[in-house]
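thought: user wants a sequence for this fold. calling inverse folding tool.
action: design(structure=
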C-alpha cells in the first residue's frame, strides 16, 4: 500500500525555504509512530533538509539526479522503481516534498494528514485533495493545541474511494 504522510496548513502550504514552517513536537511523535519500521520515500531536497536517513526505516530517495548516492539510502529515478522496491512492504510512506507528493498522489491508497490551523505564504504546497471523488475521510481526531507553537492541529486519515492505478500509465519522472 502506498501512503502519503504530510502536515499541511489551511492553504496546503507545507514548506518555506526547504523547511517545515512549524515544529509541532506532537506531530513529529505521530509521524515517527506511524512510519517506524516501514519504508519512507522522499525527494533529495527533503532528504537534505533532514540531513541523514531516518532511523528504523528503509529510506528511499527519488530523484532525477543520476549521480546522487548518499550513504544509507536507496536511490531511484522513477515510480516503476518505487513500485518494485516497495513490493513486499505492507505500507510505504511518501514523506515529501512537494514534487514527490504531486508525483505520487494519483497512486496513493491512504493519506495521513496533520491539518495545521494557519495560512502561510510558503513556497511549497501540497496538491489539492478531492474529498468529493478521490478520497474519503475515515478518521478525524480531535482538534489539539501545540503549546510550543501556539497552533491548533488535527490528525486526519483519508482513504482512496476508488483503487489507484498502480503500475499503469506513465510512471516516469517529469522533466
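)
observation: tool returned 175 residues.
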Amino acid at each position: 500500500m502506498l501512503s502519503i504522510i504530510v502536515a499541511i496548513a489551511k492553504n496546503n502550504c507545507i514548506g518555506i525555504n526547504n523547511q517545515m514552517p512549524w515544529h509541532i513536537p506532537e506531530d513529529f511523535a505521530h509521524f515517527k509512530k506511524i512510519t517506524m519500521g516501514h519504508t519512507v520515500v522522499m525527494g533529495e531536497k527533503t532528504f537534505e533538509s533532514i540531513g541523514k536517513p531516518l532511523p528504523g526505516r528503509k529510506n528511499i530517495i527519488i530523484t532525477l539526479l543520476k549521480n546522487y548516492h548518499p550513504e544509507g539510502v536507496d536511490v531511484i529515478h522513477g515510480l516503476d522503481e518505487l513500485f518494485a522496491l516497495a513490493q513486499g512492504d505492507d505500507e510505504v510512506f511518501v514523506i515529501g516534498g512537494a514534487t514527490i507528493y504531486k508525483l505520487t498522489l494519483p497512486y496513493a491508497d491512504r493519506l495521513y494528514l496533520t491539518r495545521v490551523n494557519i495560512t502561510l505564504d510558503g513556497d511549497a504546497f501540497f496538491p489539492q485533495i478531492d474529498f468529493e471523488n478521490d478520497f474519503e475521510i475515515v478518521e478525524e481526531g480531535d482538534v489539539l493545541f501545540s503549546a510550543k507553537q501556539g497552533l491548533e492541529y488535527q490528525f486526519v486519515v483519508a482513504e482512496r474511494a476508488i483503487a489507484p492505478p498502480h503500475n499503469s500509465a506513465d510512471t516516469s519522472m517529469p522533466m
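thought: summarizing for user.
answer: Here is the designed sequence. The chain is about 20% helix and 35% strand.
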